[in-house]
Design goal:
Blueprint: E1 3-9, H1 16-22, E2 28-33, H2 40-46, E3 50-53, H3 59-69, E4 74-79, E5 82-84, H4 86-96, E6 106-115, E7 118-119, E8 130-135, E9 139-141, E10 150-152, E11 158-167, H5 173-194, H6 201-218, H7 225-258
Parallel strand pairs: 1-2, 1-4, 2-3, 6-11
Antiparallel strand pairs: 4-8, 5-11, 6-7, 6-8, 9-10
Helix pairs in contact: 5-7, 6-7
Length: 260
């Protein structure tokens, strides 16, 4: 069983070395770069990765492009701000040693986020299962604007690996807010609009408080103390902004139809 580890990048010079080192056990590390303006590609090549450049088509399409360019059928997909823990690496090695007839078609892993100096347990952030090790003959990245995921063929068998995938996505609350404003809220609204979902003024008002309660109370964010409170506040901001942008999209669509 040979594995290609795939990583997509855009200006990830600060992250790419550690990301590649955490999958150095793979038979191939393939980095697909979206025309970075920093030294991402040079660092990746120095770390022994095979580097390709592909203009940015979107998250899921770029990850699928990496899958299709990989040398091996078994894919381990890693984001540049993620690291494979020693326990997860050991679990992957156990899978590699298995008889081919006993292999599942895909394996999901628990992702654990590091935020404000601590590993987060609540708020819906853990275990945050992600399907990251899979046979590309039996699965592919689904075409989504955001929150992309691997979709396995009907009847495919999926199992869960021990160990965590470490996630270092947000440096601080300001970076968190920036990610919400520039990526998560606008892309989330676009995905909802594409799926035919609609919102209202009432939903715009209620989305934030409901998201806060869900994160901090119902999903146990209070267990992470001040970090959990910040996460809940950001969840409220994200939900409110996403519904606001969705309302704007549907309003613009309505006005466009009125002119035709």
């Amino acid at each position: 069983m040979k594995i290609s580890a795939t990583i997509i990048t855009l200006n990830e010079a600060d992250n790419i070395h550690d990301a590649i080192q955490s999958v150095s056990w793979a038979d191939e590390v393939l980095v697909v770069d979206s025309e970075s303006s920093d030294h991402t590609r040079e660092i990746a090549e120095q770390c022994g990765a095979r580097v390709m450049v592909n203009p940015w088509p979107g998250f899921s399409k770029q990850k699928q492009f990496a899958v299709e360019q990989a040398s091996h059928d078994w894919i381990f997909s890693l984001d540049a701000d993620e690291r494979v823990s020693p326990e997860l690496r050991s679990a992957v090695e156990q899978v590699r040693a298995m008889d081919k007839a006993k292999l599942a078609d895909g394996y999901r892993v628990a992702r654990r986020a590091f935020y404000l100096g601590r590993w987060i347990r609540g708020g819906g952030w853990y275990p945050d299962y992600q399907l990251r090790l899979f046979n590309r003959r039996r699965g592919h990245w689904a075409d989504r604007i955001i929150h992309e995921s691997v979709r396995m063929d009907e009847g495919a068998r999926i199992e869960t690996l021990d160990g965590d995938l470490f996630h270092y996505s947000m440096r601080d609350p300001e970076h968190h807010r920036q990610m919400i404003e520039e990526r998560y809220a606008p892309l989330g609204a676009a995905q909802m609009h594409r799926e035919g979902k609609r919102t209202s003024r009432l939903q715009m008002v209620a989305a934030g408080p409901l998201a806060f309660l869900r994160s901090f109370i119902f999903k146990g964010g209070f267990r992470d103390r001040s970090a959990g409170f910040t996460i809940a506040k950001m969840a409220a901001y994200h939900a409110s902004l996403k519904h606001s942008k969705l309302y704007e999209l549907q309003h613009n669509q309505f006005r466009s139809k009125g002119r035709t």
